[in-house]
Write a structure and sequence with these properties.
Jelly Rolls; 4 helices; four-stranded antiparallel sheet; about 180 residues
Amino acid sequence: MDGWGNHMIRSIETAAEMAAIGLGLEPKTFTDRMRLGAHLLSPTGSDLNRYDVGTTFAGFHYDLNFITIHGKSRYPGLFIWKRDKTKMACKIPDGCLLMQAGIMFEWITGGYVLAGFHEVVYTQATKDTLLRLRKESEARGEHRIEWRVSSTLFSHLRYDVDLSPLPELEGFYNKEHAL
């Protein structure tokens, strides 16, 4: 898990540097503030045999950190909200990760970057995938652990970082162009 967590942190650092450059800031603006942050690798699991379609595993929310990175789960059920407030199923391609801004990112950019809303729900697609994978495993004479597992890492800015909007971004924010 340490290796995977370190890969995820490095990915977040790269995205944070790219965001800083895109905002016209020094590349290390955010990563310097992340150094020694209370990052949290938080794998979560839900027993799909214990619950059924309609169960909410993580209700509609945004995260209280800087950037959240989601690994791909073996089962669907992650939903995100677009800026026009429409909900959409999130399909993370193989070999990819999903990053979402947390509220720390929103605050330090004065709202230019908005925190991403998401939830995790046991859907019919989750159940269909469960049944398909179960059938494939049984055909091979194997027993599959039927849990929805996801690896999520919450990156944080250091505890002593002022979350007031960066002065360098004053006048940069325009509601019509918020990310």
